[in-house]
Write a structure and sequence with these properties.
With 159 residues, the chain is an all-beta fold. The protein has strands at residues 6-12, 18-25, 30-33, 36-44, 70-77, 90-98, 100-105, 110-114, 118-122, 126-129, 136-144, 149-150, 153-154. It has one domain: Jelly Rolls, CATH 2.60.120.10.
């Protein structure tokens, strides 16, 4: 299974009837670092979200997170993915769709997660390590959040 994401996006026609506006295999896959492919399914730049726009918000150029908004993303981590410790100003809801991967924290602690596992990443420094022989696929929803605070100090985001 390669990063082959079918996006189905609903909306309304000019009469207000519900329709499927987009039904496609996403072609806007990007490589964030060697061995990590990602495709944005949809993004929002406000909360609450604006459901009246005509723009294909899945193709909006966005970094790791969307300030004041959300990103719905599918990620493939290939075996031997290049390491990258990072922290984002978001709360991330993660579903392991296929495969297995290790999530490493800044102190070196690792947690092994596998297909069907659910994770909430709350602005911590982390890295993804795939030591296996198959790709791991994560569905991730990133919601912009206030920066993490520890010991009364704001912890900076870095990606």
């Amino acid at each position: 299974m390669a990063l082959n994401v079918r996006r189905l996006i609903t909306g309304h026609d000019k009469n207000g009837k519900a329709i499927v506006k987009i039904d496609e295999i996403a072609t806007h896959v990007r490589e964030g670092r060697p061995g990590a492919l990602a495709v944005n399914v949809w993004t929002t730049n406000t909360s609450p979200a604006n459901n009246s726009t005509e723009e294909d918000a899945g193709k909006v150029n966005v970094g790791t997170t969307m300030p004041n908004g959300t990103v719905f993303r599918m990620i493939e981590f290939k075996p031997g993915v290049t390491p990258r410790m990072h922290r984002t100003d978001s709360i991330d809801y993660i579903v392991v769709m296929k495969g297995e991967i290790d999530m490493q924290l800044d102190d070196g602690v690792e947690v092994h997660i596998k297909e069907g596992d659910l994770m909430v990443q709350r602005g911590t420094i982390h890295n993804w390590i795939n030591r296996g022989t198959e790709s791991c696929f994560l569905a991730v929803i990133l919601v912009h959040a206030d920066p993490a605070v520890a010991g009364g100090k704001v912890l900076p985001a870095h990606g």
